[in-house]
Structure formats: C-alpha cells, structure tokens
Design goal:
Layout lengths: L3 E6 L3 H7 L1 H4 L4 E7 L3 H11 L6 E2 L2 H6 L6 E4 L7 H9 L3 E4 L7 H13 L4 E3 L7 H12 L5 E9 L2 H9 L12 H4 L2 H10 L5 E9 L29 H10 L7 H4 L6 H10 L16 E8 L4 E7 L9 E6 L2 E6 L4 E5 L4 E5 L16 H15 L9 H20 L3 E2 L8
Parallel strand pairs: 1-2, 1-4, 2-3, 4-5, 5-6, 7-10
Antiparallel strand pairs: 7-11, 8-9, 8-15, 9-10, 11-12, 12-13, 13-14
Length: 426
C-alpha cells in the first residue's frame, strides 16, 4: 500500500511533532511539503524529510493554490488561523489532521465541518487525550459495566505553576483576543472527555465560574523589576524566568519549554539574550495576560447525571489529570498515566487496571504516546478510506467545542445556560 503523503501547515512544535510519525513509519507516512512564514522552520523540516524545494512555502495559500500534490495536510497554525487553511484544503480534496482547538469561534468550527462534509474529507481533530491509554481504559471499563451506570464525573486538570506562567502569562496563549480563552485553549480536551465518557447522554445545562488570580500588576512584589534578569527579588519568585529557562539549559535540556523561547538555537547565550529582550523574560506581574487562571464548569445531563471539571494553574503536577467517576455499582479513579482503579460496591474490593503503552517511537515522550495513536489511526483511516477509524471526527468534535463555547458564555454572563439537542444554547 502506498504511503500517505502529507503537507505540514505550520511547522512549530505541534507540526514538527506530528511530522515525526514519518521517522518511524516512512513506509506509511511521508512528509512531502511544508508551509510556514518562518523560513528556518521550513528548512528544518525540509532537511529532515528531504522535501523538494518547490514544495516549501512561506504562505500556506500558495500550497493550496497548487495542483494537489499530497493526500493530506496537518494544520498546526496558531488557533485563530485554523479556519481559512482548513476550508481551503478541504475544498482541494486534502484529508485533514487539525490541531485543537478546531477554531476559536462557533461559526469557524461549523464552516470547517461543513467544508469537510461537502468534500467527503476525513477530518481528525487533535483531541489527543481520546487516544491516551488511561482514557481509553476508563472508557473500556465504563462500557463494560464495571461501575454500573454513571452518576457523577469529577475531573481536574492541574496545569502546573510554571507551565501556566510559560504558556498563559508570558506565552502565546496569554490573551483571549490574540489566541482564545483558557477553557478552549487548554481544556477543550477535558470537556470532550466528559462527553466521551457519557456518550449516549446529552448535556442539557452548563454553568461556570473562573477568574484571573495572582498574575496581575497589583501582586507585583516590592522592588521587583519588569524583567527577571534585572530583578533584585528574583530569587524569591517561583515564576522566575531564570529558574524556568536558564536552569533548564544549564542542566543540559534543550527541548520544550526552552525551545519555544529560542526556536533556532538553544544555549545559555541565546536563552539569556531572549530573556533580555523577548516576552519570556518578563515579570509575570507585568505582562499583558488576561486569560483565567482557575475555572470550574458544572454539567447537567439528560439522564440526571452530573459532572464537574476544574482547571487550575497553581499546582505541582503538570497536566497530570485527576479523574473520579461514581457509578451505581462502583467507583473509578485515575491519576495521570494510571493505573485505573475500580472499587466494586458488592465485593468491597479494589481492582487495579494497567494501561497499554505506545510502542517505542519518536513521538512517545508526548502525551504518553497519545500523539502516536492519533497519527496511527489518521493514517489508517486515509489508507482504508474508513473515517470511523478516527476517534475525533467532525460531528463529535463540533459538539464538544459548542459545549466549551456555551460554558465560557455561562462564566461571562454569570448564569446557567440551556443546551439544545443540536448543541445550540440560550
């Protein structure tokens, strides 16, 4: 069977990661083009995958205007730049792997789904957690009846104190107007998981509360400077850029997050210079961030089931999600990578369920192998022509996104929002 040919649209960290599937499976997946306004990122992928010069673009539109030369595109552009390339490439007949979130407005999400449907395009959205082995194990146990009927889901995402400072205070996702709100940018995964575990039931009401705490000018310590390298009280600050970035490089680590600070060359000199002049060297109390640092969302489902999701910045764990699901016959709990534990009410016994691991591959260090499984199913779907192989297709993903938008409106409007059968809300 011929390998699936792909064009990477947006060669940042996520585009680069998805491309790595080709390193281990070049017989199934080949990178034949790349588009990114940052030429050095294009050149990096061009060298890694021997991309022909004529297939290297600074503007994705030029690739879309060409006669079709690949089977699919991987769209990993900034959030607000998802809709235009997704619709354009769908209209050109390319299958699409689209990084989450699908888009930053309801209208754009619906336009993408419509374009994929009218062109018979296989769309896989990067809700990678559906492919994460512990999440799959939880779903398997629910479907097996191990805990009876679900009554309540309690789910939490601990973002991590320095991760939030990096991405949502200093970084690319700090401002709603330039990216998207926190629940969409960081936690659309989690709202999707609650729907996934309660598949067969429909959310009918949602409420939400949240705010931006601590990372504001009024909390700036006395004597603090506008940049960490110039700050006299830096050594007392847990969010110090010196601690987060320079110490990381000193320990010999050059991947994320320092690779974001210095995307071309990562060494002490370049990181120091970036902290002197770039956004990642700023005091966390002196940034232009506005996205919330903590948020809760409450869900009411049509069968009477309830769910609660919490996202919080101020945690030791970095994205090690905590899940507890109460059923009529037992209780399930899972922390991070598992195992998953089920307590049986009748037997008064706890059973441990271990989770499958991804095979050794170039993508395994991200999301516990979930990125590998997402790519594997996407490639299989294209090769077989069977879109059902994809766990995160257009209709299901659209409903999850609409629920995220409804939850954010509930927070902004301080009210309970009612959800219609089609995902619309009032």
């Amino acid at each position: 069977m011929a390998p699936v040919r792909a064009v990477i649209i947006g060669a940042g960290s996520r585009g680069d990661l998805y491309a790595r599937f080709s390193m281990d499976h070049s017989d199934r997946f080949q990178i034949v083009g790349v588009a990114d306004p940052r030429l050095f990122r294009c050149r990096r992928l061009q060298q890694q995958y021997n991309i022909p010069e004529e297939n290297v673009f600074s503007d994705w539109q030029d690739a879309a205007d060409r006669e079709k030369f690949a089977d699919c595109v991987v769209i990993a552009t900034p959030h607000q730049l998802h809709k235009a390339p997704a619709v354009a490439f769908a209209d050109r007949g390319y299958h699409i792997l689209l990084e989450k979130p699908m888009a930053t407005t309801e209208e754009d999400c619906k336009a993408i789904v419509s374009a994929c449907k009218r062109n018979n395009i296989i769309l896989s959205v990067g809700h990678v957690l559906r492919y994460y082995p512990p999440i799959r194990k939880i779903k398997e146990l629910i479907d097996s009846g191990a805990i009876g009927d679900i009554v309540h889901i309690q789910h939490m995402e601990p973002v991590g104190f320095w991760h939030f400072a990096h991405s949502y205070v200093r970084g690319n996702w700090r401002k709603t107007a330039e990216s998207s709100f926190s629940l969409l940018a960081k936690s659309c995964h989690d709202v999707d998981l609650i729907r996934y575990w309660l598949s067969g039931s429909r959310c009918i009401k949602v409420s939400s509360f949240g705010s931006l705490l601590h990372f504001t000018p009024e909390n700036k310590p006395a004597g603090a400077a506008s940049r960490c390298l110039d700050c006299q009280v830096e050594n007392t600050c847990p969010y110090s850029a010196k601690k987060i970035y320079l110490k990381t490089v000193e320990q010999g680590f050059t991947g994320w997050p320092v690779s974001v600070v210095c995307p071309q060359t990562v060494d002490i000199e370049s990181v120091t210079e970036a902290l002197k002049t770039g956004p990642y060297g700023r005091c966390v109390y002196d940034c232009d961030n506005d996205v919330v640092s903590n948020q809760v969302v409450n869900f009411q489902f049509d069968g009477g089931q309830t769910a609660s999701f919490s996202m919080v910045a101020f945690t030791q764990e970095i994205c090690e999600r905590q899940t507890r699901i109460s059923g009529t016959k037992g209780e399930l709990r899972c922390s991070g990578a598992g195992p998953v534990y089920v307590f049986d009410f009748l037997m008064q016994k706890t059973t441990e369920h271990r989770c499958a691991a991804a095979p050794s591959n170039s993508m395994r260090d991200m999301h516990g192998g979930a990125d590998f499984f997402l790519m594997d199913t996407f490639v299989k779907a294209i090769q077989s022509g069977d879109s059902s192989a994809v766990y995160t297709g257009p209709d299901d993903t659209l409903q999850s996104h609409l629920l995220v938008f409804a939850a954010e409106q509930a927070r902004l409007q301080d009210r309970v929002i009612t959800i219609g059968p089609d995902g619309s809300y009032s």
